User: Fold these one by one.
Assistant:
Number 1:
Amino acid sequence: MTVENWDRVVEDFRSAPSLSIWRGYMKEVYCRLTRRWLAAAPPGRRLKTDLFEEAICRQHPMADFPDGSVGQDGSISVVAEARSNLGGLGSHHLLVSDLRQSPIRPGALTSILSGSSLDHFETDEELASGLAEVTAGLAPEGVLVLTLDNPQNPLIWIRNHLPYRLLHRLGLVPYFVGRTWTRNQARKQLESLGLEVTQETAIAHVPRAPAIWLDSLTRAWRGDRLGRLLLRAYLAFEGLEALPTRYLTGYYIAIRASRPPDRET
């Protein structure tokens, strides 16, 4: 997907009604994941590879990031809007750069959240190139949290096998979705880059289309109390992560990987 297209998508989202319940749900899903998987990461600089959520709303995972964290996105408009929304989080550094050509020097990062950022490329080669560039910035003992669209989820599988133009015209897909990998494919790619996969799971289990529709309905009723109840109901779906069927219900696969310690003396 081109930078110009992302600029247009951000403008469309800014002019559309706010989905505050849905955005709050997704923020909490990612914040829970990073708290759980990055708690043991070495102190230091953290990277978030996508600033779309930061650009379109004030409910985003970077609000939970430590001072000095870095945000990276290929769109100037996305970064500009994210900077405006981050407001008081002025200690964060935002970069405009293609994930396939990262300016971050090797080993500069102790933790990375790449949340469904790399699955917007059209080819496997671009996806692999982006992953290699992102992980190159990870220091020894640093931790990567990677999420990708889950092709094992039946709804994602159907979406990926239908024409994008049709889905976009029907309003089911607001932006282009590209290549993704299975858990096995992602694990092999990470291991080929010298990382050790330590945990795997699936996240975001609430059915997306009904959840967004209910969010819109609640907003029309201006029901704050109902909205809080709905958010709790959405988050209750994350209990499905504990079941063996989690890879059928989760919208994203999530993988935690770390770079082995530098053994040179």
Number 2:
Amino acid sequence: MEYNTPNTRERIAARRQQRRAAPPPAPRRPPATPAPGQQAVPGMRRSLSSWLANGRLLSLVLCIAAIGLMAHALTSPRFSVWQIRVEGNRILEADLVADLAGAFGRPIWFVKPAAVAARLRENAYIASASVDLALPDVMRIRIVERRPEVRWQAGGVHYLVDGTGKVLGPARESATEDVLVIADTSHLELKPNDLVDVDAVHLAQELALRLPVELGLTPAQIGWDYGLGVFVRGPLGQTIVFGRSENLDRKLAILNVLLQDQTAFTYLDLRSSNPYYQNRAPAAPAP
């Protein structure tokens, strides 16, 4: 029996030759990866589904709706001050108070009640004011007015004055007989919100009440002087100086004694601890 001679070496050499002659295999590309700092962008449908699932889309819709409603409320004429209701006024007209507020037609969101109340209190007749707002277009104003108690005559003009000595403004009507008028000899021009001597106001009011009742003396005039204070002109032309309200009972008692004794005088000063009087009337001619 004959066997083929092994040719292992030739076969190995032939395989090596085939490998050298064959072209090299194409390189495999690695899977694409996002660049550093970037993320893969999902598709529109997938993003929408994700937003619906986590509630972002609903939040976005609600946010846009809220912005729209706010813009409408800020710009709509419906939310402006068109109704102004005034309470507590007796002297001032409601329309005048509304004009003083300066808020008619303004957006209600930008009206500051404290600023409006401060502006109202600048008027001499308004002692206090409070302001409230109510949607969509209402402003409520409550005021407390100062009441004129006397008239202060200065420079030929009668000014209305309240119990605190504050000047409210010139009187528009003539004084009636029951109105107390204090004649100021300084003749200074006064303006609303000016202050006069409050002690003089109170003393004049008290003298106007007590002199006719307690002493039977009806003043022809009650006046005020910067140096003298309050003085009274008697029915016979006498000048009786009271000054200020201190020791008023004592001053009235001294005056009452002189009147009861029928002491003649043209000038009486009750201010000092030792009051004195003078009689400068011309002597009656001899018969």
